[in-house]
Amino acid sequence: MTRDLKIITGSANPMLAQAICDHLGCRLTPTVTETFSDGEIRIEIRDNVRGDDVFIVQPTCAPVNYHLMQLCLILDALKRASAGRVTAVVPYYGYARQDRKVVPRAPISAKLVADFLTVAGMSRLITIDLHAGQIQGFFDVPVDNLYALPVFLEHLRKFDGDVVMVSPDAGGVERARAYAKRLGAGLAIVDKRRDAPNKAEAMHVIGDVKGKLAVVLDDMIDTAGTMCSAAKVLLEHGAKEVMACATHPVLSGPAVERLCNSDFSQVIVTNTIPVEEKQKACPKLNVLSVAGLLAKSIHNIHTESSVSVLFV
């Protein structure tokens, strides 16, 4: 028996969900998501899902706790409606930076969120560029951690000249090396000293950036402090032009203002998190779509085909 494919979305990123449906040639399953005056959330699935293969598109972006709770309630509603298999499509996985104990008597929040989703009824998870790959081990269900690399490579190949991929810290070197290898580009690292959470001071550059287009690569831009410091240091070391490239545009606090006033000629991000309003405020933001990538993964999972072909 073939299960019907159903796509559902919460309120986190409905435009991305609709774009995925456009790629797949299907419609969004109608749902009701309301918030009562006391802040409680009401969820109702307005279509029959019994035995169906259901995919919920819901990044846990700001407000993180609201969207996470909404996702859990949708999962529970589908479980109680006897859906056949329920896959959570969470392009941006919130709490991913809290993946270990860094001080005594602290929670491992990324693990707790994984437990929330599993208990709520999730059969499988699709996400993009997890902050730490080992978070996949926090789940007792299959996890497909896709990479935005093919989306970015298609755009970066349009630029002529000598390109160098730059990691803003030592932890991102593997990611920058993967891009550099496929682009035939150079590799550099910005050495930084972190003084407090969400604050980082860039120190110096390891690698040759003189006269080159330097592309600072990271998995996310939060307050943009690290990125903007890296841009300044790269120009001081002779880079001809500096661009930023990050999968998840968290853009919290002063991020938009910092990027607008930064030395970046362009800030390339994806639509894992909706940034339409912030894009209007910062013309430097160039948003690429991951809808095609997610649509392919959903199609392959639904048809029981290999998902590993998407891991480049």
CATH topology of the largest domain: Rossmann fold
Strand segment count: 14
**CATH C-level of the largest domain:** Alpha Beta
Question: What is the number of helical segments per DSSP (H or I, 4+ residues)?
Answer: 9
Shape field: globular
Multimeric organization: single chain
Number of domains: 2
Strand order of the largest sheet: 10-9-8-11-12-13-14
- The ordered H/E elements are EHEEEHEHEEHEHEEEHEHEHEH
**N- to C-terminal separation?**
32 Å
How would you sum up the major sheet? 7 strands, mixed
Give me the secondary-structure category: alpha/beta
What do you see in this structure?
The protein is an alpha/beta fold and 312 residues long. It folds into two domains: 5-147 and 291-310, Rossmann fold (3-Layer(aba) Sandwich), CATH 3.40.50.2020; 149-288, Rossmann fold (3-Layer(aba) Sandwich), CATH 3.40.50. Helix content is 30%, strand content 28%. It has helices spanning 14-24, 64-80, 109-120, 149-156, 173-183, 225-236, 255-260, 276-281, 291-302, and strands spanning 5-9, 31-35, 41-45, 53-57, 85-90, 124-128, 143-146, 163-167, 186-196, 199-206, 213-221, 241-249, 266-270, 285-288. The strands form three sheets. It has a seven-stranded mixed β-sheet with strand order 10-9-8-11-12-13-14, sandwiched between helices. A five-stranded parallel β-sheet has the order 1-4-5-6-7, with helices on both faces. Helix 2 (64-80) packs parallel to helix 3 (109-120). The longest helix is centred in the N-terminal third of the chain and has 17 residues, at 64-80. The protein is globular. The mean pLDDT is 94.
